[in-house]
Amino acid sequence: RFMAQVASSQQYTSEFLVVEVTIPVEISEGSPAEFSVYPSLPHLSYQWDFGDGTPAATGASVIHSFADDGTYLVRVSITGDGVSIVEERVVTVSNAAPTASLVATPLVREGSSAAIIVMNQHDAAGDVAAGFIYSYDFDNDGVFDLVSDESRAIVPGSFLADGPAWQTVRVRITDKDGAYSEYTSQIQIVNAPPTVYLSLPDEMSAGTAWLGSGSLVDPGQDTWSGIVDFGDGTTSELSIATDGSFTLEHTYAQAGAYMITVRITDSDGSTGMARKYVVIAPEERDAAASVVINDGSGQRSMVTSITCTFDADVTSIDADGWSLTRSDGAAVEVIAQRIDARTYLLIFAGELTENGSLVDGRYELHVRADAVHTATGGQLESDMTITFHRLFGDIDGDATVTAVDLVSFRSAMDGSASEHVASFDHDSDGTVDIDDYDEFRKRMGRRI
Predict the structure, then answer these.
(1) DSSP letter string over 108-121?
(2) What gap in Å lies between CA 206 and CA 307, rounded to an integer?
(3) What is the pTM of this model?
(4) Can you give the pLDDT at residue 4?
(5) Nearest by Cα to 52 from 80, 78, 79, 33
């Protein structure tokens, strides 16, 4: 006669033996549980069928785990020496939440992306075989930003936009039966300095204001302050717009090579820098000119040269840039001699000259502005025209030969005054003599 005991163990009694069968009635999937018959007698055989399709197990005590949740009929058969006992129990296997570990990129610059990886997943074999669903909350705000069957994800830079800060990310791993576990990890966000860009004119000249621009890229939600060093000993604070743009304006006093340096600091204290090497050309300006007849004295008795002096270095003057004409339209041949970078000496040749001087008459000298080329790329400020005359004997330059001029002529002729000798030496023979007097006398009282 056999007697049954309720609960998870069943006890049987005969006139020969009593056995106690232990079968857990509630366990979790994937968790090992012990199934046993007591006592274990060597002359008996014990065979277990767990009802889950796994091979039968033998032994008075076995360890078994169920690969998936559900209800299973567990049967143990005890045989030998005329004994044949079969005991069955329904075992309820509950679903278990998966477990895992979470790792994330530990440190990123603001605005950069980060990686998060779910590792060491563990669950009942059936759930592992079916795969898991991963839900990612990139900013731990309670809303999942990505649901995927992939165990790794990239946190977009928009979730890591501003540092220094810490960002908590949350991941939920869910098995096919809906059980889940959640894990969090922290990512350190460090501040990134702004990246600065400069745009400057291709050509800049000394003395001329130039305008450039700049911009910056900063992934952080920052404000900025900046300063520019123009490399010539001057600095200026920058006015930076909310979009990161700014302007640069400066005038270099001297030509040369300069290094422009812009430093911009964000509200978190990080500084970005940009440098650009510039070459400043000499000041490009137009030239002005002054003209001296002969040596600058007022006499117009002999006109042998014109000196033209510019206030800027001149590299060249076009051959047709000069023109000298008499009042009747006759042209004088002009020979221009470069004395130095700023000085040209004009002398004359041709039919309208005598003994090295222009012949008597009124003249107009014209210099064309675009024919004058300065060292800085400029030209003459404007066309230049001067008028003058030549009248032999006119020592005081009043365009008339008078008794005043005669007094000076006689002083030069008798040797009592030497300063006007060349002016009264009509034939340029080195002396003021009767021949020169004849020419003077012809012009006495004449106005030109």
Answers:
(1) EETT--EEEEEEEE
(2) 29
(3) 0.54
(4) 31
(5) 33
DSSP letters for 112-177: --EEEEEEEEE--HHHHHH--EEEEETT-SSS-SEEES-SEEEE-GGGG-SSSEEEEEEEEEE-TT
Q: Quick one: tokens of 330?
A: 């006759």
Q: Determine the 3-state secondary structure of 212 from DSSP.
A: strand
| 3-class DSSP assignment, residue 430 | coil
For 3, counting Cβ atoms within 10 Å of its Cβ (0-12 exposed, 13-18 middle, 19+ buried), the class is exposed
Q: Checking DSSP bridges between strand 107-109 and strand 180-190, what pairing results, if any?
A: parallel
Residue of 32, 62, 65 whose CA lies nearest to 45: 62
List pLDDT tens digits, range 305-340: 999 999 889 999 999 999 999 999 999 999 999 999
Distance (Å) of CA 10 to CA 1, 76, 89: 14, 12, 10
Considering only CA atoms, which of 67, 66, 78 is closest in space to residue 39?
78
d(CA 383, CA 17): 138
Looking at 217-261, list the stretches that DSSP marks H as alpha helix, in order from N- to C-terminal side. none
DSSP state of 319: G
